[in-house]
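Box 3.1 — From sequence to structure: Carbon-phosphorus lyase complex subunit
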Amino acid sequence: MLTHTFHNGHILSDMGEVRALSFEGAHVADHCARHCTGHGAPDSTDLEGDYLIPGLVELHTDNLEKHFVPRTGVSWPVGLSSVVAHDVHMVGSGVTTVFDAVTVGEPGNKHMRQEIFHSSLDALEDAEEAGLLRADHYLHLRCEIAGDDVIDRVEPLLGRKNLKLFSVMDHTPGQRQWRDLEAYKRYCNIQHEPEHLIQERIDGLRALQAKNARGNLLEIIHICRKNGFPLASHDDTTTEHVRENAAQGMRIAEFPTTLEAAREARSLGLSIVMGAPNVVRGGSHSGNVAAVELAREGLLDILSSDYMPASLLHAAFMLPSLAGIPLRDALRTVTLAPARAVGLEDRGELAPGKRADAVRVRLVNGVPMVRAVWREGKQVL
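Predicted structure (token representation):
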């Protein structure tokens, strides 16, 4: 039986905008998606002109670590409260499916990430078992291949039921995201240090890369092939980067840094992910290609909120004016496209039989604001 109906708003279903839409338990009702009038269910929502869109799907967010390390050098000792606060933050941004990007093998001076590694994973598992999470949470292992202990940290996690995605990245200065060394120095806030100390730091990171990167990369590729995990590249800069990754079976290109790399990714059939903050801020914080430029070229498939959850919805609503993309297609970059890229065929659109994950959105001074969220037919915000 029908359990909830929506009417009097901009309801963006798989068929386009419809007059009304109903849920039947945890799924979108087939007949209502086509013919419903907004009546006939125990609960009914008058949208008052707001939008109803599919729940957002986030493939790469670093937001979890902010709740474990709320201030530089300060870790929060209660993991469960950190996870729940993160979960509420994501749902409040319209996200109903979250891939928590947890760093494995961080080289350099970000030791705090490794200190919270196990506590954050354990707290996620505890919160899930206790029924505390409003969104669906999956694990995305972002593997820093220049690190010494990447494989040692990955192997014990392979049996976790929520592990769904791997990515390989190399943030060694002088290439990929940090090919501009001055941008790297500003980001790390070391631009005023003595030049010889900066060079010592860079030389040390390059030595780690030379020692570890290739072997770790090949081992992670082997692990993903053996276990059937999708694998994403990260910060591809050249056509050679993209070709090599595609040849190794990668089908997702996260944050290509150049137009050249994005074009090659498109030609080889990779799904192209760009940062939603890049759209909202008007460009890359590290001086790389702008996401809107790629969107105008038809080279943007998926948006990720990366470090700012609210950017995901905001960027999708900005793309029509900035890149000439219809709103329905822009919203697919944060719903259907990411879901399909990782094999989640049960969500990402308000379509008959799909999961009843939905977000009510109101535009306030041109900014999309989340007013309510449903996950599997139940209101969670």
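Summary of the box: The chain has two domains: 4-51+367-379, 56-346.
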